[in-house]
Amino acid sequence: MKKALEIFLGILTAMGGFVEIGELVFTVDAGAKFGYSLLWIVALGTIGIITYGEMSGRIAAVTEMPVFFLIRQRAGYAAGLATLLAALGVSLLTCAAEIGGVALLLKTLLGGNYFIYVVLALVFLLLVVWFLSFQAIERVFGLLGLMMIVFVVAVFYFNVDWAQVGAGFIPNVPQLDTSKDYLVYAYFAVALLSSIMLPYETYFYAAGALEDGWNASDITLNRIIVIIGFTFGSVLAIALVLTGASFFKPLMIEPQLPGGVALAPAFALGKWGLIAALVGMFFAFGGAAIENALSGAYNLSHFFGWTWGKFRPPKDAPRFNLSWIVIFLLATVIILTGVDPVEVVEYSIIFAVVILPFTYFPMLLVAQDPKEMGPFVNGKLANILGWIFLILVSMVALAAIPLLIITNGGKG
Amino acid sequence: MSFHDLDLSDHVLDRQVIDSNHILCGKVDDIEFDDTGELRVTAILVGNGAASERLPEFFKYVSRKLFGTRVTRVSWSEVDVITHQVKLKSTAAELGLDERSGAAYGIVSSLPSSWKK
C-alpha cells in the first residue's frame, strides 16, 4: 500500500513538475506561430527525457552515484569543470527566470510593484527550502503545480482541429513563406526540445532518488514514475501547444507573459479557470526555481565531494546549503536588474541544449557498463534510444546558438 | 585489488574521499609522488588548489577565483581501502578535511534551525 502511494505521488509529482516558465513560453508560442506542426517535437523530447531520466534514476539507485559524480569520474577534472560551470550558468539563469515568473504572476493576481514581488518570491523560496524536507517540497510544489491541468480541460472548449493534431505528431516541416521562417521554425524546434529535456531535470531527479534513499529494489518504481509521470506531463505540454494553436493563433496573439497565457483557460472556464492557471503556474515556476537552485548545489557538492543532502541538518552540509542560498540570491539580483524573465529563460534554454551532450554521454557510458551496473545495465532499447538521443542532442547543440543569433531569438 | 596493480589515474584520481566515519570529505584532486628513488605515491591532495594545478593557466585562474586555493595533504599511509571511493583511516576533523570549520559553516550554523533535519 505504501509503495502504491509512493508510485502514485511520484507520478503526480513528476507530472506537476514537468512544465516550467521556459516550456510554457515556448510551447504556447510555438502553437501560436506554427499551429500543430511542432507537436512531434514534444513527443520526441518526451521520449528523450524518459530515456535519460530513467537512466539517471537507475544509475543513482544502483551505484549511488549522482550525475556530476559520474561526469567528474568519467570525464576528469578539466572537462568536468567546464560542464559544471556551464550547468551552473544555466541553472542560475533558469532560476532567475522562474523567480521573475513567480513575481509576474503575483503582480497579475494582486497588482502592485513587480520588484517587491521579486523580493517576496526570494524570501518565500528561501524559507520553503530551509524549513521543508525534500519530500515535502517535491510533493507540495509538484501536486499544486498540477493545477495547470486546467489547460488540458480548457483545450476542449477551443476549436481544435483534431485531424491536424494527429498529423502534427508525424515529423514534418510546414509550408512557410520565407527561408527565414524556416529558420525560425528550426529555432522553435530546438528550443522546444531543449525545454523538455532541460539538463537540470536529470540532475535533480538523480539527486532526488538518492535523497529518497533508493536502491536497486526501486528500479521498477523509477521506471513507472518516469514513464507515466513524464508522459502525463507531456500531455500538459501538448495542451499548451494546442492552446497556442487553437486559441491564440486565430486571434493573431503571441503571448509573451505567463499572465497572458492564463487568458486562455480564463476564456474557457471563467474566473476559476484563471485562478487555477495562475496558482498552478505559481507552484510550477516556484518548484522549478527550487529545483534549479538545489540542482546547482547538488552539482557543486557532487563534483567537489562535499557533504550534501536535505536529509541532513544544514550545519552538517554547510557548503551545500550555502550554495543554494547563494544561487537564489544571485538569481534574484539578475532579475532585480530589470531584465525580462522571459528573455532570460529563452537564453537559458538555448544554452542548456549545448550542455546536454556533456551531461548525457557519461551517463550513457555508465548505464551500459556491466561492471558498474551489474544486472541493471542498459537493455537493447535503452542503448539504442540513448545513442539516438545523444547524437540528436549533439547535432541540436551545434545548431542552437547559430539559430539563436540568426533568428534574433525566434523573432525572425 | 592489490596495490601492485592499482591504476592511479583510473582508480584513485578524482575519486570521492570518505573518512573513517563515512563522512564525505572531498575528492582526490591530485597525487603526490616521491621520485628521489623508486617512484612511489606519498600522499593524496584534497582541495581545489591541487585540482586547479591540472588546468591550463587561464582556467586555473578562473577555478581558483571561484572555488579557492585550499589544499590538504593526506599521507598515503592514511588510505585504508580503495573501492569506488577512497576511504581513510582517520576522521575528517583529524586530517583537516572537516567542512564544519570554514566560513560556510560559520554562516550556515548561525541561521535558525540549522541543527534540525
Structure description:
The complex is a heterodimer of chains A (412) and B (117). Chain A is 79% helix and 0% strand. The mean pLDDT of chain A is 92. With 412 residues, chain A is mainly alpha-helical. Chain A has a single domain, classed as Amino acid/polyamine transporter I. Chain B has a single domain, classed as PRC-barrel domain (SH3 type barrels, Roll), CATH 2.30.30.240. Chain B contains 5 helices and 7 strands. A 4-stranded mixed sheet of chain B has the order 2-1-7-6, with no helix packed on it. Chain B has a 3-stranded antiparallel sheet with strand order 3-4-5. Classes of the chains: A mainly alpha (412), B alpha+beta (117).
Outline of the structure:
The complex is a heterodimer of chains A (412) and B (117). By secondary structure, chain A is mostly helical.
Please state the structural category of chain A.
Answer: mainly alpha
Query: Helix and strand string of chain A, N-terminal first?
Result: HHHHHHHHHHHHHHHHH
CATH homologous superfamily caption of chain A:
Amino acid/polyamine transporter I
Q: Which band does the percent of strand residues of chain B land in?
A: 25-35%
